[in-house]
Each structure stands twice: as structure tokens, then as C-alpha cells.
Design a protein that fits this description.
Oligomer: single chain
Strand content: 15-25%
Structural class: alpha+beta
Radius of gyration: 20 Å
Number of strands: 15
Order of helices and strands: HHEEEEHHHEHEHHHEEEEHHEEEEEH
Helix content: 25-40%
Shape: globular
Length: 417
């Protein structure tokens, strides 16, 4: 569910030690959930989290039926400049981006480019072979369900996928950690195909046997950003346009998401949230070579349009992006019970997870935390987007607490409306 879930696995004691003095979290009792009925009730509750939980800024949207019931932003997009976080603030979405990849996949299927049963090697300019299971046939359905047998190599994923933008100041404590300890380079973005060929071609500089599991496709669930980016490239290759252009043409533009993009060159940095390790420590701006898996930039106003359309699609009432049949495909269970770890989810569709009556996806990256959920029947939904870090050791627990508090408050609000 998280773009950088590996930060919770890799031991990053240095940043914990170096920045303990920078943290100013307050041990204040959590506010009460009882009686959250009105927008004012919910707003007051969420506002309290800025002070009590050390959240830089965030936005929350709750939609009921065909309407936005609640949409408000809190805290700061930039703390030093006292710039408020608003519904127009641009924020990277991290792995919520994969839900757009799911929609792009459904669109490509509708257009006849492939089916879920298509062998990916029938679509690619080079064959992708699992060296631990060379006879295994990887299909589109395996990429959208994280069961392809392709996995990420944490060190490679972090150091080779992430890059810091050229004009950013890296002569800071956090900049030093990113560059000198995690190996993230300051450079220009490379093309998606150039990045992926280094991973999947046997002669590539990033080729690694650890990118593969010794299992049959479809048997083992293992979350993979690299496999997700590969699917984005397949869509790019079969459609003849870049993945970011394909999403713009068939998803963003039809929904009039005019402030959203996968293209780093089109990001409105003047309105973008500063991303924080904690409220005193901003990250330099960065991006991803394999941007498909977590590189969408958007804001609350645009995402409200997306959420409402996904809710209508779940109800069988939308044909904005594709016909009802393909909204159904997007949200239909693709795996047998028990393949997805029970602590993670019950099942999932095209990147959308099913759990506790919700369709959902979350995302975390450096200074980014996000969550989107809608009820399976499409009656209600919400999203949370924040410039709070939920990746480094310690911060992941803080974000999980904040996410739980916000989610519980929203569910209380929905139940009373």
C-alpha cells in the first residue's frame, strides 16, 4: 500500500538520532470522537490534530452520494512562510497513484490493447523472464494484483528510482542523509523505458536476481513498485504515447482534473506543499524515474472529482472514463481468498484493495502520506492527503496513528449523516 514501505524495514538510526531534538510532538490525549455530526464538529476535531500530532498540513474530503459533504484543509503547506494548506495546494499522492494506473489499465482493456489474461511478453519489446521460474507466464492480471513474482530490491528501489531535482539544496541534515546514506542522486529524470530496461534486461546495470521470487505467477502476493511501473510502460508501449500523456488524455482530462499530472515538468511548484520529515525539517523536492507507481501530483479540488467518479462507478452510474463494465472490472475481486495477507487486505481489484467493506489504497513517500477509501456500494468515500512523512522509522507509526484518528472521525461523521 505504500510507495516507500521499505523505510520501515531498513534501519535508519541516523535520522532518528540526529533529529530527536527537532521533534516537538506533544503527548496530549486524543480528542473525543463522540458527537461528530456536523461539518463544524469534524473541522474542530481535525484542526486539533495539527497541534497535538505534529502534522504540518493536510486536506480531507468526504463525499456522500453525488455530493461533496465536507472538504477542508488544515495546517501549512509551508511552515516557515506560514503558507496555509488549502484545497488548491498541490501534493504528490505517492501510491494512491496506482489507482490511476488501475483506471488506465481498465481503459487499455476497453480499447482492445490487451486483456487481463494477456502474456506481458506478447506486448513488450524485450522478454521479461523470471530466472527462478523461467517457464512461468506473467500476465497483466498478475501485475495488477502484485502476484507476478516480480518484487522490489529495497536498496536499488530507493537509490536508483528516487532522484532529487537539480536546483534543490542538499546541504542540509536531511539532504545529507538522502544523498550520502541512501544514495539518492541529484539529477535529471530518465525516460521510463531507460529506467526499466536497466532493471529487467539481463545486461542492465540494475538487474538483480533478488527482483524475483521462486514461485508461479498468481501464487504469491508481494507488493511491487517495479512491477507496477512495468505495467505503466506496457500501456505506454501499446498505446504509442507516454504513460503520463495517456492518463492525461483518458482520465485527468475527462474528469477536468486540470491541476493534476504525472509529468514532473508540468507541476505547479508555486502551489506545491513543502514536504516534511517533521515540522522543522523540510525535504528537498524529488521525483521518481519509475513515476508510474507513485508520481501523480494533484490537489483536493481535483481529487474530489476523481473520488466522486469512482463512487459513481462503484454504483454502476458512471461512463465518464469507460463503460460500466470496466468500472466493474476495476473493482472486482481478482484473487482467490487467502492470497493477500489477511493483515493487509481481504482481496483486491485493479490495484484497489478490498477491506472491511471499503475499496481503498494508501500511499507514503518522503514527506507524503495519503489514503483514499470508498464504500463498496459507492455510497460514501473520503481521502486524506498530507505533507507529513510516514516512511522513516518512527514517522510511520505517527502517520498510522493520525490516519486512524482521521478515519475514525470521518466514519463517525458519515454514520451521523
Amino acid at each position: 500500500m505504500k510507495t516507500l514501505s521499505y523505510f520501515t524495514i531498513i534501519l535508519i538510526l541516523s535520522i532518528t538520532t540526529l533529529m530527536m531534538s527537532c521533534t516537538n510532538d506533544k503527548n496530549i490525549e486524543n480528542p473525543s470522537l463522540e458527537g461528530i455530526k456536523t461539518n463544524a464538529d469534524l473541522s474542530e476535531y481535525l484542526e486539533s490534530l495539527i497541534e497535538t500530532k505534529g502534522v504540518p498540513g493536510f486536506t480531507v474530503n468526504v463525499s456522500l452520494g453525488n455530493n461533496i459533504a465536507f472538504q477542508e484543509s488544515f495546517g501549512y503547506a509551508n511552515i516557515a512562510n506560514q503558507t496555509s494548506y488549502t484545497n488548491q495546494t498541490v501534493n504528490n499522492l505517492a501510491s494512491i497513484s496506482k489507482t490511476f494506473l488501475g483506471a488506465a489499465t481498465a481503459k487499455a482493456i476497453e480499447q482492445g490493447h490487451f486483456t487481463l489474461e494477456t502474456n506481458i511478453n506478447n506486448l513488450l519489446p524485450i522478454d521479461i523472464i523470471n530466472p527462478k521460474n523461467p517457464n512461468g507466464v506473467i500476465k497483466i492480471k498478475h501485475l495488477v494484483t502484485h502476484t507476478s513474482g516480480i518484487v522490489d530490491v529495497p536498496d536499488t528501489y530507493i537509490s536508483s528510482n528516487y532522484f532529487i531535482l537539480k536546483d534543490e539544496d542538499v546541504n542540509t541534515t536531511i539532504g545529507n542523509i538522502l544523498v550520502n546514506e541512501l544514495g539518492i542522486q541529484q539529477m535529471e529524470q530518465v525516460d521510463l523505458d531507460e529506467y526499466l530496461v536497466e532493471i529487467f534486461d539481463e545486461d542492465g546495470d540494475l538487474y538483480n536476481l533478488d527482483n524475483y521470487l521462486d514461485s508461479e505467477p498468481g501464487e504469491t502476493w508481494a507488493y511491487s513498485n517495479d512491477a507496477s511501473s512495468l505495467l505503466g510502460y506496457i500501456i505506454e508501449f501499446v498505446s504509442g504515447v507516454s504513460f503520463d500523456e495517456y492518463v492525461a488524455n483518458y482520465i485527468l482530462n475527462p474528469l477536468q482534473m486540470n491541476n493534476s499530472t504525472f509529468n514532473i515538468d508540468q507541476v505547479d511548484f508555486q502551489n506545491m506543499a513543502t514536504l516534511y520529515y517533521d515540522v522543522n525539517t523540510p525535504f528537498p523536492n524529488y521525483a521518481n524515474h519509475g513515476y508510474v507507481e507513485g508520481g501523480l501530483y494533484s490537489n483536493s479540488n481535483d481529487m474530489s472529482k476523481y473520488l466522486l467518479d469512482m463512487m459513481r462507478g462503484a454504483r454502476g452510474e458512471s461512463a465518464t472514463l469507460f463503460s460500466n463494465q470496466y468500472y466493474g472490472l476495476l473493482f472486482s475481486e481478482q484473487l482467490q481468498n487467502g492470497i493477500v495477507p489477511t493483515e493487509f487486505a481481504e482481496n483486491h481489484g485493479l490495484f484497489w484493495y478490498m477491506n472491511n467493506g471499503y475499496l481503498m489504497h494508501g500511499g507514503n513517500s518522503l514527506g507524503i502520506s495519503s489514503q483514499i477509501q470508498l464504500k463498496k456500494d459507492g455510497s460514501a468515500g473520503f481521502f486524506i492527503i498530507s505533507n507529513m512523512d510516514g516512511t522513516f522509522t518512527g514517522n510511520s507509526e505517527k502517520w498510522e496513528e493520525v490516519k486512524t484518528l482521521v478515519t475514525n472521525a470521518i466514519e463517525e461523521y458519515i454514520s451521523n449523516n
